[in-house]
Design brief:
The chain has 352 residues and is an alpha/beta fold. It has one domain (4-348): Ureohydrolase domain (Arginase, Chain A, 3-Layer(aba) Sandwich), CATH 3.40.800.10. 41% of the residues lie in helices and 14% in strands. The chain is globular.
């Protein structure tokens, strides 16, 4: 069997993208990879467009279209990246629960109260329990990967899925910050009655005392309660709304200076949570909840580069809400974001 070094020597990074079932057609197996990407095929609690459960599979299928050269981290591919295919059990469970979730959400939108309907109340309870089970599975998988010496990225699915990973990181790091690129604040408490809702990920993450700061970038769709929660948190939650960022630029602030302000507000150890809808929806038209506005692709990549160049350590990341199979453009953009996140994390920890 070829060693990792043999594979690096014989692999042609300038050649045709190989359809070998691996991310970007790379030759590495999981045990050889410095970075392992955990696919989580889940979109049970999405409140608008569905299909992001197959986002990880879409990214994997589209990834051989990418060229491997990263001008910022030229030999990054050599550290080894491996993306696990979607877990079949959770994929099947998602397919079972999503129709029930849609029925429940439609009931709410029509003014229904689950407390008055035994069947709907049971659906809510089943979904909450399954979401908690998924959270615990992600926690165990990511913890085991880190114990094996791997750097880990989580690929959703809806934005609820990385919470278990954040819990695992909280056991390893006494304090860290989160850089959230997103159209939404995701600070709702148990949105639509789902404790582990995609819209509640950072409400739940802030319950981890190890999360010392949450810096939200690109925000442009949020409710009054979320805004108040952020304001009441003091310095712990800092919000860079899309409108505020644009107005500062219109009035003469450079995007570079904006990025410097964002990076300066982060602690030394940083987790990046990248909801693809943080980008302009032209780049992610089939995400779950697209919103006008947002970052352009080069802006998002520049922000990640500034985090890396600041000398801060990227301890983990997630990429969520990429449109599912059948939407090649979404998969293409998602794969490029994922590659940059993985490269930056590796380089920040001396792997690139």
């Amino acid at each position: 069997m070829s060693s990792k070094q043999d594979k690096i020597q014989t692999f042609d990074p300038n050649g045709v993208g190989l359809q070998n079932g691996h991310f970007i057609g790379l030759p590495f197996e999981e045990e050889e990879a410095e970075v392992v990407l955990l696919s989580v095929p889940w979109d049970v609690t999405v409140s608008f467009g569905e299909g992001t459960s197959s986002g990880p599979a879409n990214i994997l299928e589209c990834s051989p279209q990418l060229d491997l050269f990263d001008a910022d981290i030229p030999n990054a591919w050599q550290m080894g990246l491996f993306m696990r295919p979607a877990n079949e059990y959770w994929q099947r469970r998602n397919e079972e629960l999503r129709p029930l979730s849609k029925r429940y959400i439609e009931f709410l939108e029509e003014g229904g109260d689950p407390a008055t309907d035994k069947e709907l109340s049971k659906i809510q309870e089943e979904i909450n329990q399954s979401c908690e089970n998924l959270k615990n599975w992600v926690y165990l998988e990511t913890r085991q990967l880190m114990e094996a010496g791997k750097l880990v990225g989580v690929v959703g699915g809806e934005h609820s899925v990385p919470l278990g990973y954040l819990q695992a990181l909280a056991e390893r790091y006494p304090s860290f910050g989160i850089l959230q690129i997103d159209a939404h604040m995701d600070l709702r408490e148990a949105f639509e009655g789902f404790t582990w809702s995609h819209a509640s990920i950072f409400f739940n993450a802030l319950r981890l005392p190890q999360v010392s700061r949450l810096v939200q970038v690109g925000i442009r769709d949020y409710c009054e309660a979320e805004w108040e929660l952020a304001q009441e948190s003091g310095a712990r939650v800092q919000v860079y709304t899309d409108q505020g960022m644009r107005e500062m630029q219109y009035e003469g602030t450079s995007f570079h200076d904006l990025c410097q302000s964002i990076v300066h507000s982060l602690p030394e150890q940083v987790y990046i949570s990248f909801d693809i809808d943080g980008l302009d929806p032209g780049l992610c038209p089939n995400t779950g909840t697209p919103v006008p506005g947002g970052l352009q692709f080069p802006e998002a990549m520049y922000l990640i580069k500034q985090v890396l160049e600041s000398g801060k350590t990227i301890i983990g990341f997630d990429l969520c809400e990429v449109g599912g199979q059948g939407h090649e453009w979404d998969g293409n953009v998602g794969a490029r974001v994922l590659y940059k996140l993985a490269n930056a994390m590796g380089a920040s920890q001396g792997k690139g």
